[in-house]
Design brief:
24% strand; 2 domains; alpha/beta; Rossmann fold; 9 helices; Ubiquitin-like (UB roll); three-stranded mixed sheet
C-alpha cells in the first residue's frame, strides 16, 4: 500500500515538472534558454531593409558629392601674396570652377604651386565647404642679391635662388665677390663662398640687414659688410654668426658715432671712429 502511494506521488511530480529529472531547475527550464532567445539573429526582411538603406544612402552621398550642384567650386581665393599676383597663383593652381569640390586634391595643388612658382615658400590649400577653395601662400624673402650681368638673383636665408629681377629690391644687400686672387677660391669654390655670404646675411639682425648695402667676400675668413653712412663691419668667416650679431648690436649701441666695427672675434669686438 505504501509503495502505491509513492508511485502516485512520483507521477504527480512528473506531470507538474514536465518530466524534469532530479537536479533540473524549477519549471523544467533548460540552462541558457533565455540567452538563446536574446542572441537570435534578425530576420531576413530586417537584413534586406538595412542593406537597401545603406545602398540608398551611399548612392545619395555619391550623387551629392559628384553629381549634384550643391557641392561644386564657385570661388577660389588667394591670400598672402606680395610680389606675386593673385591671378598668377590662380593660373598655376589650375583649379576649375563648377567642378565637384570632392575632385579638388589640395596636396596636388600645393605641389603644383611649389613647382611652378619658386617664390612661394609655403602654401596651404583648403576646401571650405560647400563652394570655396582657399589658397594661402607665404613668399620667400630675399636675404641677399647675386649679380648676374645686368640682373639680380634673389636668394633667401636658406640659400634658395628663387627669382631673377632687373631692379633690385630695397634694403637687400648685394653680394660682391673679390676672390680671384684668394687661395679660398681653389679650396672652397665660388659656390661655397657665396653660401658663406648668405649665412652672414641670415645671421644679421633685421635693423642691420636693412642698413647693409654690400656683403663683400674676399676669402672664406674675410667677409665685410658695407653699411649706410659709410660704416664698415669686419665680420670674418661665416662661423659663430649669432655671437657676432649680438656683439655687433652691443658695440653699435655703445659707440653710436663709430664708423668701423670688428666682430671677427665676437668675444673681443673692436670699434673705430675713422
Amino acid at each position: 500500500m505504501a509503495g502505491a502511494v509513492r508511485e502516485k506521488a512520483a507521477a504527480g511530480r512528473e506531470e507538474r515538472g514536465g518530466g524534469a529529472g532530479p537536479g533540473s531547475p524549477p519549471g523544467g527550464r533548460r540552462p541558457g534558454g533565455d540567452r538563446g532567445r536574446r542572441l537570435r539573429l534578425p530576420g531576413r526582411r530586417v537584413l534586406i531593409s538595412v542593406l537597401l538603406t545603406v545602398v540608398v544612402l551611399g548612392g545619395f552621398s555619391g550623387w551629392a558629392l559628384y553629381g549634384s550642384h550643391w557641392l561644386r567650386v564657385e570661388q577660389v581665393t588667394v591670400s598672402g601674396t606680395d610680389v606675386l599676383g593673385a591671378e598668377e597663383v590662380l593660373d598655376a593652381a589650375r583649379i576649375s570652377e563648377d567642378v565637384p569640390m570632392a575632385t579638388v586634391d589640395p596636396d596636388a595643388v600645393e605641389a603644383r604651386l611649389a613647382a611652378e612658382l619658386p617664390r612661394i615658400d609655403t602654401v596651404d590649400v583648403d576646401r571650405t565647404w560647400p563652394h570655396r577653395i582657399e589658397v594661402r601662400v607665404t613668399e620667400r624673402q630675399p636675404a641677399v642679391l647675386l649679380r648676374e650681368g645686368e640682373s639680380f638673383v634673389e636668394v633667401d636665408d636658406g640659400g634658395v635662388r628663387f627669382a631673377t629681377v632687373r631692379t633690385p629690391p630695397r634694403n637687400v644687400p648685394i653680394v660682391e665677390m673679390q676672390v680671384a686672387e684668394s687661395p679660398s677660391l681653389d679650396r672652397f669654390g665660388r659656390q661655397r663662398l657665396r653660401e658663406s655670404a648668405v649665412r652672414v646675411a641670415g645671421a644679421l639682425s633685421e635693423s642691420v640687414r636693412r642698413d647693409t648695402r654690400t656683403v663683400l667676400v674676399r676669402s672664406y675668413d674675410s667677409v665685410t659688410l658695407e653699411l649706410t653712412g659709410g660704416r664698415t663691419v669686419l665680420w670674418g668667416s661665416a662661423e659663430r654668426g649669432a655671437a657676432k650679431s649680438k656683439a655687433l648690436a652691443a658695440v653699435m649701441k655703445a659707440e653710436r658715432d663709430a664708423r668701423y666695427f670688428d666682430v671677427s672675434v665676437p668675444s673681443a669686438p673692436a670699434v673705430s671712429s675713422s
